[in-house]
Amino acid sequence: MSRHGVFVSESGTAIAAPITGSCDVQVVIGTAPVNMVDNPSEVINKPILANSAAEAMAALGYTDDFANYTLCQTMYATNNIHVVSPVVYINVLDPSIHKKTFTETTVSVESRTAVLQKFGVIRDSSLTVKVDNTTLIKDTDYTLEYDENGYLVINLVAGGGGASATAVKVSGNELDPSAVTAAQIIGSVNASTGAETGMEVIRQIYPKFGVVPGLLLAPGFSQISTVGIALMAKAANINGVFKATAIVDLPTTGTGAAVKYTDCRTVKESLGFTSEFCFPVWPCAKVGNYILAMSAVVGALTAYLGSENDDVPANPSNKALGITGTCLADGTEVVLDQDQGSTVNAGGVATAINMNGWRLWGNYTGAYPATTDAKDMWFWVRRMFNWQGNTFIQAYFDKVDDPMNNVLIESIVDSENIRCAAYAPDKWAGASIEYREEDNPVTDILAGKMTFRQHIAPYTPAQEIVNILNYDTALLQSALQGGE
Q1: How many CA within 13 A on the CB side of residue 94?
Q2: Long-range contacts: 56-64, Cβ < 8 Å, 24+?
Q3: Hey, which of 3, 148, 303, 416 would disulfide with 433, CB 3.0 to 4.6 Å?
Q4: Which residues, other chains included, contact 410 with Cβ-Cβ below 8 Å and sequence gap of 6+?
Q5: Is the pLDDT of residue 398 over 80?
Q6: Could you give the residue ranges of the DSSP H alpha helices within 35-120?
Q7: CA distance 256 to 260
Q8: pTM, two decimal places
Q9: Pick from 221, 191, 211: nearest CA to 91
Q10: Segment (H or E) for 171
């Protein structure tokens, strides 16, 4: 039927549409149940850019077994606590390596469907489905899929060899995430092929997606000293030019763990988490019955706040975490008051306290208290320096190899001063850039090098607000005399 006129239609409201931002893009390294996807080999040691948590779940699989499948912690946090995107995931779990055999299991069949209630079953050539002693043929006698619990569903084909079966026998391999090692999270570069694994894959993110990493995380693994230190090293130098911040967890169980708040500084220093490019956090976060690494929740919160702040880094301290409690990894409850939380902070570690709701509590990077340089001791200020440097590189990359003349100098100085002025006084106190002759001797000019000097003044957090109370006897006397 033809229409004539002006028309309006409505679509359903999107639930919790993710805020997008680029100042604090999370890069998360860990494990995912990739047996659930059609082509697991395509998501092993490769950067996966997800513009929503649902997209990440579809690309990598999902389960609420957060202890074994650590990437799912960030999927959960960015879908159910602080809805933000994009996130880059790097999965190191390889079903061809990290696997173990499960014994033959008999599964009942109802309406030509059998559900093997075992998580992590791998759909590869090792999987065998039998009726009595007859081995069925995949895609001829049966098809495979996973249900919402991640369990393997065997659908017997009408007319196939097992169409009338009341039970099937299943054997094969299942994932073994416990086989993933810290060395595999850290990764390496194959000297012969150049293939990169683990954290080495971070290098590929900007060339592939044009996305600059802002926060580096490895929930479930960053509490291991070698992993946390490697994450900090990557954060300090990405692609030879960019900088990020690693959010690292302190261990809460096992030898050398921080099991009480007074342990945090000693444990942090023993692990070597003392870089300005890291933000140590403790303990774990609880959301109902779920236990998550604090880094996963803090990463989501930090990215979310930056996205809401006109894509400029914001301070996450004293902001609602969206959790229901804190605990050790074994579930032991941890309840800190403000005074105890401040003791944790004094050692350069952030935590969470319950003040009208659970809040992140802590402003210092891991470099504190060894350093008192404002740009390195404050998590917020350090990220502002990272953001400004990363932004400058991207904004003026097109100027590289242009003629080195006054037109180029004025273009960069004028453009940068105008851009930076737009952020004052809301985002920072101010910023300016200049080209000085003394910084640019003829030898540098002949060598094709030009140097600018930029001054930026991010705000420091109002960490301590003091109100001095005194007894004013004059007011008392005035009130009493006035009443006579």
Answers
A1: 12
A2: 56/87, 56/89, 59/89, 60/32, 60/33, 60/34, 60/89, 60/91, 61/32, 61/33, 61/34, 61/35, 61/36, 61/37, 61/150, 62/32, 62/33, 62/36, 62/150, 63/33, 63/119, 63/150, 64/290
A3: 416
A4: none
A5: yes
A6: 53-60, 71-76
A7: 12
A8: 0.93
A9: 221
A10: strand 167-175
